[in-house]
Automatic annotation (TrEMBL):
Name assigned to this protein: Lipocalin/cytosolic fatty-acid binding domain-containing protein
GO biological process: lipid metabolic process; response to reactive oxygen species
Region named Disordered: 152-174
Domain Lipocalin/cytosolic fatty-acid binding: 13-160
Family: Belongs to the calycin superfamily. Lipocalin family.
Any one GO CC term of the record: cytoplasm
Species this protein is from: Rhynchospora breviuscula
Residue ranges crossing the lipid bilayer per the database entry: none
Superkingdom classification of source: Eukaryota
């Protein structure tokens, strides 16, 4: 079996510019996201201590599901965009910390679209500041993911409404319920 090369990771990421909302254009399906999820997005806000508040949202069955966490540099002394993201599970009774990798593999110079992965190549996300992405850019990101050793046939496009739904509809919220349901294959 051929040895897999180390992934190329963005260097010198301007964390302040990276903050804000990112829409999931495509991703590898994961057990912790609903199979019928749509309008999936992440919102990042810089904390005073240099960590990042993470709000992941998705809509499933007409209800907003969300989970909050914290991201931080994997190695504060390195300029590579390698982060750790920590969530507490279950989200509605946060007691178990779960930490994952979040590596920025590609980011355009205007900070409008990004390719996110992690070292096992089991997770991949294509993110954009807009709910839709130009096919040419999407295909370029697919090629970049292939170069990094990803099987892009596993990518699934995420349905996105335009305009996107509002996230302040508290009556339709399910804090991390999708995670709990995913344990039972729902």
């Amino acid at each position: 079996m051929a040895k897999t090369k180390e992934m190329t990771v963005v260097r010198g990421l301007d964390l302040a510019r990276y903050m804000g909302r990112w829409y999931e254009i495509a991703s590898f399906p994961t057990f912790f996201q609903p199979k019928d999820g749509r309008d999936t997005r992440a919102t990042y806000n810089l904390n005073d201590d240099g960590t990042v508040h993470v709000l992941n949202e998705t809509w499933s069955g007409g209800k907003r599901d969300y989970i909050e966490g914290t991201a931080y540099k994997a190695d504060p002394n390195n300029d590579e965009a390698k982060f750790k993201v920590k969530f507490y599970l279950p989200p509605f009774l946060p007691i178990i910390p779960v930490v994952g990798n979040y590596w920025v593999l590609y980011l355009d110079e205007d900070y409008q679209y990004a390719l996110i992965g992690e070292p096992t190549r089991k997770s991949l996300w294509i993110l954009c500041r807009q709910t839709q992405m130009d096919d040419e850019i999407y295909n370029q990101l697919l090629e970049r993911a292939k170069e990094e050793g990803y099987d892009v046939s596993k990518l699934r496009k995420t349905p996105q409404d335009d305009p996107p739904p509002e996230s302040d509809a508290a009556s339709t919220d399910n804090k991390g319920i999708w995670w709990f349901k995913s344990l039972f294959g729902k």
